[in-house]
Design a protein that fits this description.
Layout: E1 16-21, H1 25-41, E2 49-54, H2 60-70, E3 75-83, H3 89-108, E4 112-119, H4 122-127, H5 136-157
Parallel strand pairs: 1-2, 1-3, 3-4
Helix pairs in contact: 1-5, 2-3
Length: 158
């Protein structure tokens, strides 16, 4: 049996897009910075990373898909934070963003990574920015690197 996996080193021609929600910026700013640091640590130069700010989480799938269809990016990393409130708005936003981001890869061939924190409280969300657990932005960026590398290998083998 052959096993194939992606490398965790970024080649000079590989570009990544970060789509970051400005809503809950205390959290999403930390996610974006951690994702950027992950990409840099794995070989990217600053000019290989483009960041796109959107007003809220709901707008992420539309912008991420537009970026994926340009052909400029090996992966699109989607970063947001949706915190449960006292209404059912949370459920609608969380399900729509998950569905939208999840559809991008199969539709475009460009992976869209789900670095979206869904939490009951701001404290839980902050824990997932590295206070008590790993950083969701870093994890999404690491998955983007590996997935983009694996897809490049598959395309090269054709």
């Amino acid at each position: 049996m052959e096993t194939h996996s992606g490398d965790l080193f970024i080649k000079p021609q590989t570009r990544f897009a970060l789509v970051v929600s400005e809503f809950n910026n205390l959290i999403t700013g930390q996610l974006a910075e951690s994702a950027r640091q992950c990409l840099l640590r794995h070989g990217a130069k600053p000019e290989q990373i483009s960041q796109f700010l959107v007003p809220g989480a709901f707008e992420i799938p539309t912008v991420a898909k537009a970026l994926a269809t340009t052909g400029k990016y090996a992966a699109v990393i989607c970063l947001a934070c949706v915190i449960r409130g006292s209404t059912d708005h949370y459920d609608h936003v969380a399900s729509q963003i998950a569905r939208g981001v999840g559809a991008i890869g199969p539709e475009t061939g460009v992976p869209a990574l789900f670095g979206v924190i869904t939490a009951d409280t701001q404290e839980q969300a902050l824990d997932r920015t590295g206070l008590k657990m790993g950083n969701t932005g870093w994890n999404a960026a690491l998955a983007a690197i590996a997935t983009a590398s694996l897809l490049a290998k598959i395309k090269a083998a054709d």
